[in-house]
Amino acid sequence: MKHTLMELPYAMDALAPYISEETLKYHHGKHHAGYVNKLNELIKDTEYEEMSLEQTIRQSNGAIFNNAAQTFNHDFYWNCLNPTKTEPSELLLNAIKTTFNSMESFKEAFSKAAAGQFGSGWAWLVTDEHEKLRIYTTSNAHTPIEHNLTPLLVCDVWEHAYYIDYRNERAKYLDNFWQLVNWEHVSKIFGDKELLRSSASVPICNDPDDPICEYLDDMSRQGTTST
Ligand SMILES: [Fe+2]
User: Fold this and answer.
1) What is the CA(158)–ligand 1 centre distance, in A?
2) Mean pLDDT estimate for the chain
3) Where are the domains of the chain?
C-alpha cells in the first residue's frame, strides 16, 4: 500500500501560541511528509509494499522501520493535540488516579520522563501487558507498538517539535503541551481498549486510513485467532 501523509485535524495556526504555525508547517509539511515519502520510496517493489503500516513496523528494520515508525508516531502525535480544551473520560481519569494518585502527579511524572529522554525521542502514556497505565519513553523512531504496548498519549520530544518556538527549552514546550492535549482522543482509545477486553474481540474500528483504528482491529483479530 502507498502510505499517505495524514491531514492535520486542525488548521496550521490553530495550536498557537503554544505551537506556532511555522512549527506546524515544518513539522508536518517537511519532517512528517519526509518520513512518508521516504517510506514509499523504500518499499517500492518490496514485500513491504503489500503491508499495512503496523505490519511494516513489526516486520522491518533499518531505514524502512525508521520511516514507518516515524510515520505512525507522528500520526499519533497530531491526533493527541487539539486547540480546544477537552477533559478525560471518567474511566480514564479514575485509571490515572489509581495509578499516579492524581492528574497533577501524572502530568509531573510524564513531563519529567519527557524532559529526561536523552536526545531525540518520544514520551508516551501506554497500557502495558497487564493492562496497567504506564509512562514509557522511546528513542529516535522507536514506538510502543513494537512491544505490544497500547499507546494512549504521546509527546514528540525531537528538537524539530519545539526548536522554532522554544529553542532549546524543552521544559517550556512540555509545560505548554498540557494546554493542547486532546483528552477526548486519549479517552476514546482507552475506552475502546477496555471495550475490546470485555467484549472478546469484536472489531470496533474499520477505517483503513486511521492507524490507531487499524491497530485496535489488529489486536481484535489476534484475539480472535488465539481463542
Ligand atoms: Fe516530530
Assistant:
1) 6
2) 92
3) 15-227
Q: Where would I find the H helices in the chain? A: 21-26, 33-43, 53-59, 62-79, 90-100, 103-116, 163-166, 170-177, 183-199, 211-225
DSSP label at 17?
A: T
Q: Are 69 and 57 in contact (CB under 8 A)?
A: yes
> Is 3.40.50.300 the CATH number for 15-227?
no
Mean pLDDT of 185-202: 82
Q: How far is the CA of 87 from the centre of ligand 1 (A)?
A: 25
How confident is the model over 164-191, as pLDDT tens digits?
999 999 999 999 999 999 999 999 999 9
60 falls in which pLDDT band (50, 70, 90)?
very high
CA of 164 to the centre of ligand 1 (A): 13
Distance 153 CA to ligand 1 centre (A): 14
CA distance 78 to 5: 11
Q: Is omega for the bond preceding 9 within 30 degrees of 0, making it cis?
A: no
CA 178–ligand 1 middle distance (angstroms):
17
